[in-house]
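Pasting as-is:
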Amino acid sequence: MGRPWHPEHFVCAHCSTEMGTKNFFEHNGQPYCEKDYYMLFSPQCAFCQGPIIDKVVTALEKTWHPEHFLCAACGNNFGEEGFHEKEGKPYCHSCFLEVVSFLCAGCSTPILDNYIAAINAYWHPHCFVCRECFVPFGNGSFFEHNGLPYCEMHYHAHCGSLCAGCHKPIAGRCISAMGHKFHPEHFVCAFCLKQLNKGMFKERNDKPYCHTCCLKLFGPSVV
């Protein structure tokens, strides 16, 4: 190190062992024996906590002996397909699918990347769509029916709350007639299109008619 020493004074800066003619390492102007140098200044293996003297694997923001970088589930080395990470631990592809990954509620296959958590389940983003028309939810809002997501239109269709006149959802008041539901303004005479009141209409071929039009079209026998 460019300086003269008494042999008994040339010692490891950490353990004070005389180094004599033994190999030593220098760090910040101080000599260290091999054991202490590796312990103090070499990268530490995340598995065994021992110093890494030769080859090193850097993964998951840690360093590892190559022989200690193993699947956290089965303990095998990683092949050419690499590894998957979950909560800071590495997993081989098989264990990640069997032990760690979620199954998509839409397609029942493992989720390996981004996912959506909704309706007490996990979904691939491209699988979280209306289960009737398979259209994605553009604004992120959806309706749930029997544990499945639906767009507003098909949610109301399943719940029987679509207007039979305009085929759009009924959010407020409605009229129930002839086994269907209607917006009040869409419950009209099939001939003159005048708005009808519940109980003040005549049914003919599953269509509602006002009293006047029913009499005009079908005669007094129907009325």
